[in-house]
Amino acid sequence: MTTDQDLPLDSQAIPARFVSKGIDITTKKDQGVMKVVKRKGQDGDRPMIGDKVTVHYTGKLLTGQTFDSSRERKESFSFNVGKGQVLKAWDMGVLSMQRGEVCLLLCKPEYAYGCAGNPDKIPSNSVVIFEMELLNFEGELLTDDRGIMRRIKVKGDSFISPNDGASVQVHLEGRCDGQLFDSRDVSFTVGEGEDSGIPLGVDRAMDKMQKGECCVLHLQPKYGFGAEGRPEFKIGPDKELEYEVTLKDFQRAKESWEMDLNEKLDLAPGVKHKGNQYFKDGHFYQAIVQYHRIISWLEMECGSGIEQHKRIKECLVMAHLNLAMCFLKLKEFSQVIDNCNKVIEIDETNEKALYRRGEARLLRNEFSLAMADFQRVLQVSPQNRAARSQISICQSKIKEHDELDKRTYANMFQKFAERDAKVIILGDGTDWLPRFRQSTPGQL
Questions:
Q1: CA-based nearest residue to 92, from 76, 77, 106
Q2: C-alpha 325: how far from its chain's center?
Q3: How confident is residue 440, by pLDDT bands cut at 50, 70 and 90?
Q4: What CA–CA distance (Å, rounded) separates 107 from 101?
Q5: In terms of pLDDT, which residue wins out, 390 or 9?
Q6: 393/404 Cα distance (integer angstroms)
Q7: What residue stretches are annotated with the PPIase FKBP-type domain (predicted)?
Q8: What is the number of alpha carbons within 13 Å of residue 415 lying toward its C-beta?
Q9: 344 and 354 in contact (C-beta within 8 Å)?
Q10: What is the per-residue pLDDT across 116-173, written as a single tens digit (0 to 9) for each?
Q11: DSSP string covering 157-207, please?
Q12: Contacts of 131 (CB under 8 A, 6+ apart)
């Protein structure tokens, strides 16, 4: 890394040097953060608000004393830029940088550590200097499976976001392989974007956006139009999509705490119906959103009488069973088991929950546990032919597994025996001793 000899860190003239050589990157143009580029970065993109950035930094007082350095720790530092996770000066500085760039930032207290400073390191109201190197950046990941990546072009003007059930007004521009295929203003209900031809990833990103925000969403096929594609847009199967989305306005739906129990119970059948429609059409992720809404409303409710308690129980059992079926279709077997367990906590003899948990366990090769579930199904419903058939399958799988184990161990012991049988004959051939050989560590 180069060193700028014109900006010695121990000089009392540093602020003046920064003013003469640097640029003011504050929005107020109050010279609160002055930047001097020491090494230019790669031409091209710069970080956007919300991007995950990785940097090296060294922080110094005007005396030249270092108070913090990632380089000394030999460990880079990552954060989401523009989200208030770090100093204001860092957010401003990094958003102005290119990948590989090295710069110096002269930061007034109001953009750094303020009047409080940092005990034992930074005096009150200190002007500080940071040397920053932008190593890398990528969009903000909105899902654990990296299926939705967001890059914010224009930050929204509030901290409130739409929720499931909210009515939103957006402008969309969808691209596939660089070609624009969708450009429109559209209103839809969050959680029901499929009804308006909105891909799952755009729908699911709504609760992360604020009014006025404009962002670019990079969607993996699972969150786009999936294996089916979208013929009306001439989108083939398993295509990655890019959507630029502007949230123009929205009206939030009532949160659970804003509704009384009767209102929740009255709304639940309609949400169930919507989920069932999505399930029948093969839109399992969209169905999951609907069933989760019912659970979020009712899982903490007890009811004030027998009738209310019964309705709550019925709604929760239905929602968890339907979630289990969705996750079974999606081959997310741990989620199937979790939802079936929730039903069994409410009703330990629930035939559907026991059967679906058995199916998930069978598909996870947990044959004994699966067979136990199907046997419990028969205890509840002796005429259940499907459970009898599944028990036969489990028994066959257990037998196959045992035979495979026997063959595996037999082959292993045979190899041991053959190796140990290698001997040398000493003298007249009457004394047999194993032939010793040099072995490597860990070798029998």
A1: 106
A2: 23
A3: very low
A4: 18
A5: 390
A6: 16
A7: 50-138, 165-251
A8: 6
A9: yes
A10: 998 889 999 999 999 999 999 999 999 999 999 999 999 998 889 999 999 999 999 9
A11: SSS----TT-EEEEEEEEEETTEEEEEEEEEEETT-GGGGT--HHHHHHGG
A12: 38, 57, 58, 60, 102, 103, 104, 105
Here the tokens at position 151 are 């890059």
Q: How far apart are alpha carbons 5 and 292 in whole angstroms?
A: 61
17-45: string of b/e by CB count within 10 Å (b at 16+)? bbeeebeebbeeeebbbbbbbbeebeeee
Which one, of 1, 2, 107, lies nearest residue 61 by Cα? 107
CA atoms of 47 and 90, how far apart (whole Å):
12
Q: Shortest CA distance to 325 belongs to which of 337, 336, 314?
A: 336
Q: How many CB atoms lie within 10 A of CB 290?
A: 26
Q: Angle at the Cα of 324 (from 230 to 386), degrees rounded to 5?
A: 105
The total of other beta-carbon atoms located within 10 Å of residue 135's CB is: 14
* 66 contact partners, CB below 8 Å, separation of at least 6: 58, 59, 60, 72
Question: Kind and range of the H or E element at 319?
Answer: helix 306-329
The answer to whether 245 and 217 have CB atoms below 8 angstroms apart is yes
pLDDT bin (cut points 50, 70, 90) of residue 17 is confident
Percent helix, strand, coil in the chain, to 5, is 40, 25, 35
Say what percent of the chain tops pLDDT 70. Answer: 89
> Which segments within 32-122 are labelled E, that is strand?
33-39, 52-61, 66-69, 77-80, 102-107
